[in-house]
Amino acid sequence: MLLQRFLIRLLTMLVTLFGVAVVVFVVIRVAPGDPIAMMLPPGATDADIARLRALYGLDKTIVEQFFIWLSGVARGDFGTSISLRQDVLGLVFNRLPATLELAIVALVMAVAIGGTTAILGARERGTAIEAGIDIASGAALSIPDFLWGLVLILLFGVLVPIFDISGRVSPQLDLPFVTQFYFFESLLRLRFDLTWDLLKHMLMPAIALALPLAAIISQLLKQSLKEVLDLDYVVLARVKGFSETQVILREALKNAALPTLTLIGVQFTFLIGGTVIVERLFSYEGLGNMAIDAVINRDLPLIQGIVLVFALLFVLINLAVDMMYALLNPRLRHG
Amino acid sequence: MDEARISRRGWSPRLWLAGGWLLIALLAAIFAPLVAPQDPLAQDLMLERLPPFWLDGAEPGYWLGTDSLGRDLLSRLIFGGRIAFIVAFAAASAACLVGSTLGLIAGYFGGWADRIISRIVDIWMAFPPVLFAILLVAVLGTGLSSVILAIAIIDWTRFCRVIRAEAMGQSRMDYVENARIAGYGRIGIMLREVLPNVVPSIVALLSLEMGIAVIVEAILSFVNLSISTDDPTWGGIIAEGRLSIHQAWWVLVFPLVTLILTVLSFSQFGEALKSRFDPVLR
């Protein structure tokens, strides 16, 4: 039952990825600008241009180009970046950890903020505290990450300058890292001086990404908790003498969490999508920032590679959420 | 819930504020040449980085100060509103038309139509939307119509997903079955019976989408891919403000406040319309 569900999902996932590849390939090849002309100095001859077009395979038909590219991708060869003259896969893997770190830190913050306010709101239901949380989460939800990023730059970059507003790490620092996961590696190596510097750069973009998701978590979890808190077994726990906070944490939370967990999974893909502009805003050296440069430079192989990696990430997260839901939901588990 | 009950009886204070702001901003944008105190493009290096009116060194007639080229900020915001509202109305309507039509077809007819449309929606959802928008505008070429087209191409899925689910629910209702027994054709039922019942959701989504379109246009202007760099846009002003943030904070603060108020107002409208039309709450 579970295996069958998994295999069907896997198949749909491949169809989706193939569709994404086709759409990107078609979209960027109807673009009017010529990437080859942009690479060469103004005095280049027609023969030079033709030679370079052949080198990048741009002299073939679009269908031929697609299948040449696709067979490369299947072997793990995403081609060579036109603007940076490096292997696309290498470039993407160099930048992906920075984006993943940012997204994961943002997710943890969203769960922490959303979870805390949901529990507080459920405990103080019907009071001014709950009303305040509702208003705050309503505003946090309506204002998108791009605008939160700008608000944070003004507040903590200019008004009270405690954080750095651009880059990923201070350039003068000597980094001993072997992976590109600077933040996680600094924690493992117990180099908390570096952790702090990384955090000073990462905190504002992470909060900007986290706030809208925190609001969604807060609203949904609070709603689920309030529904569960009226059920018999919770009332029983209360009669047994547990405090309201204990009742929520020990009894209500695990039964109210499932819808929120599913939602977090889906919303996490939106959060990752948001990293593109938030990284740009904070000059954070991640995949999204590189993607915007790639579009501006008309770097076709790099754009294709990045979009496909993002799409792969999204479908994998959706697959994981779907499987988690199937495992945790008793009705599906025994069905 | 309580809020919905209030809004059913009349306009809540928040809705009044939202409507008031949108009306003022829209009128200012429409009558920009009459309302704007200065020429939004006029540069004057003698007047560069003037602070807003309540600070020392401000010049009368330049209420919100000037940018690093001496251009009047208030006038630029008013003219920028024109682009913002044109994009909001045009892009949201186009996304709505395409998304609602496909959603209605997928939800009501089901079967192969539903399978194909849902698969396309899946593919679209696997793109990071901002990157998709930037890519499309780069391909279509910068300009107002490209921005509108790009937003419509990306955001039709928002309408499609919701309307598909609603149309699917409606088509299982008894009244649809009755209409079929009464001899109405499938398309007739879809347009005359199902469509009116999903219109409330469409209208609510449309209001939300206008806010989203304003943001996407600002993001595209921010990465310098929206319309020509001469015309003032809210995102373009923000990009300038981000660069001169330590010398002239007002160049970032005022467009940011304008954008936040506009987005909050559109979403307030969307929420209020949703709860007003919601049959469960009604």
Q: How is the quaternary structure best described?
A: heterodimer
Which structural class best describes the helix and strand composition of chain B?
Answer: mainly alpha
Looking at the structure, the CATH topology of chain B is: MetI-like fold
Q: Can you name the CATH architecture of the largest domain in chain A?
A: Orthogonal Bundle
What level of helicity do the residues of chain B show? over 70%
| Largest interface, chains and sizes | A-B, 48 and 39 residues
So what's the CATH class of the largest domain in chain A? Mainly Alpha
Measured distance between first and last alpha carbons of chain B: 10 Å
Overview of this protein structure:
The complex is a heterodimer of chains A (335) and B (282). With 335 residues, chain A is mainly alpha-helical. Chain A has 2 domains: 2-74, no CATH class; 93-334, MetI-like (MetI-like fold, Orthogonal Bundle). In chain A, 76% of the residues lie in helices and 0% in strands. The termini of chain A are close together. Chain B has 282 residues and is an all-alpha fold. In chain B, helix 5 (111-125) crosses helix 7 (144-171), helix 6 crosses helix 7 and helix 7 (144-171) packs antiparallel against helix 9 (186-222). The interface between A and B is large, with 48 and 39 residues.
